[in-house]
């Protein structure tokens, strides 16, 4: 059965949403409404920046006649100095998944809270900023190696939300996010649609069967490119799928008399009201790979004036955490090598399910062992202070 698909023009969306008072996009774009959720975002490395002035645009799942296909992340030149890219995103609206196209603007707007990585952590952009006509890059989230880029700085990006690979906002299992006041203001700015080069990049991706989710099972062989529309040189394959292709929750029919779902928040042609909070968030799956495990908190040094025993315990805890980090990194490398060997086989999907189960068991066993060792190294609880006997009533 074909997946339900609706196509509505930007003008129709504006008329229905009563948004004609907002600055118009310079050309008509199509928004899509699909009855099935997009796959999770694959895990991939960012290719090296090809030169100064390029900005990163993350990959995403687009929809075509044969279903979802991957549009590789790529480095692009902005249409003019001072503009930043707001990624498009899928949002839950009226029982369907609606595509909100990305755009260029002086400020990054709302993109559904989806964590695309490499500076796009769900809100804003941590990969760099404009100063005059020069763009300054944050090396912490930007891969700069063999190119002459001198406008760089280092700023650690702290992400205080649970990192997952969900690729849509709102609805069952989706990201629960609402636009900030800054993102609301960005919605009022003039938006410039994707450049012709970006449109050509997307259209070319739509013609490549290996980028279809039904073919690559959520792990595209071309996950990112150094330049748009160049699928032959300096391409990066996905390390692994972000989750099972069918893991996304499917839309459920509303019960009789239940309130209609709120439309997903949009800064593009789709509705602009806030993204809904899911009534019952989907439980997070058990980590499959060592890279999926959360980072441990930094060890706490012994306070000034601590006893010798307390200093020794602090040193032991730091050593234990360093060993755990080494073991996790070693397992992560081993699992990635397993994926690389499996992908080189003639039929890579044949044993992938068994390999993923094996990886999940390895990760679970290591996680359990580490938790037990942390518990063994925990300081003994202090004995409770004896309570004084109750006072006898005076006779």
Please specify the SSE layout and strand pairing.
Elements: E1 5-9, H1 10-17, E2 30-34, E3 43-44, E4 55-57, E5 60-64, E6 67-71, E7 73-76, E8 84-86, E9 89-93, E10 96-100, E11 103-105, E12 128-131, E13 134-138, E14 152-153, E15 168-169, H2 181-186, H3 196-206, H4 213-216, E16 224-225, E17 235-236, E18 238-240, H5 308-343, H6 352-377
Parallel strand pairs: 7-16, 9-15, 13-14
Antiparallel strand pairs: 1-2, 2-10, 3-18, 4-7, 5-6, 8-11, 9-10, 12-13, 16-17
Helix pairs in contact: 5-6
| Mean residue pLDDT | 75
Low-confidence stretches: 1-29, 247-285
The succession of helices and strands, N to C, reads EHEEEEEEEEEEEEEEHHHEEEHH
Number of helices: 6
Strand content: 15-25%
Strand order of the largest sheet: 1-2-10-9-15
Distance between the termini: 89 Å
Tell me about the biggest sheet? Answer: 5 strands, mixed
Binned, the helix content reads 10-25%
Overall geometry comes to: globular
Number of strands: 18
The count of domains is 2
Category by helix and strand content = alpha+beta
């Amino acid at each position: 059965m074909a997946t339900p698909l609706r196509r509505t023009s930007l003008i129709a969306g504006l008329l229905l949403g009563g948004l004609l008072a907002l600055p118009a996009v310079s050309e008509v774009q199509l928004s899509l409404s699909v009855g099935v959720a997009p796959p999770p975002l694959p895990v991939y490395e960012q290719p090296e920046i090809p030169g100064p002035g390029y900005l990163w645009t993350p990959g995403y799942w687009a929809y075509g006649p044969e279903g979802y296909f991957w549009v590789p992340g790529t480095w692009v030149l902005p249409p003019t100095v001072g503009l930043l890219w707001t990624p498009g995103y899928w949002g839950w609206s009226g029982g369907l998944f609606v595509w909100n196209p990305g755009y260029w603007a002086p400020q990054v707007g709302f993109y559904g809270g989806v964590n695309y990585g490499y500076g796009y952590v769900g809100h804003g952009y941590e990969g760099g900023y404009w100063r005059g006509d020069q763009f300054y890059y944050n090396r912490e989230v930007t891969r700069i190696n063999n190119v002459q880029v001198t406008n760089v700085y280092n700023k650690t990006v702290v992400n205080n939300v649970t990192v997952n690979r969900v690729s849509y906002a709102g609805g069952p299992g989706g990201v629960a996010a609402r636009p900030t006041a800054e993102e609301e203001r960005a919605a009022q700015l003039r938006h410039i649609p994707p450049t012709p080069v970006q449109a050509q990049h997307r259209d070319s991706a739509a013609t490549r069967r290996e980028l279809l989710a039904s073919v690559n099972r959520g792990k595209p062989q071309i996950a990112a490119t150094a330049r748009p529309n160049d699928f032959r040189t300096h391409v990066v394959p996905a390390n692994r799928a972000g989750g099972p292709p069918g893991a996304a929750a499917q839309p459920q029919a509303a019960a009789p008399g239940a309130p209609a779902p709120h439309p997903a928040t949009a800064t593009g042609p789709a509705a602009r009201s806030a993204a809904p909070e899911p009534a019952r968030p989907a439980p997070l799956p058990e980590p499959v790979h060592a890279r999926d495990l959360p980072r441990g908190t930094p060890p706490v040094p012994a306070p000034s004036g601590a006893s010798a025993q307390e200093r020794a315990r602090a040193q032991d805890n730091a050593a234990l955490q360093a060993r755990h980090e080494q073991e996790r990194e070693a397992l992560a490398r081993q699992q990635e090598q397993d994926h690389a060997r499996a992908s080189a086989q003639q039929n890579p999907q044949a044993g992938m399910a068994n390999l993923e189960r094996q990886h999940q068991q390895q990760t679970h066993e290591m996680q359990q062992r580490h938790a037990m060792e942390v518990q063994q190294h925990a300081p003994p609880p202090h004995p409770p202070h004896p309570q004084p006997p109750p006072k006898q009533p005076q006779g």
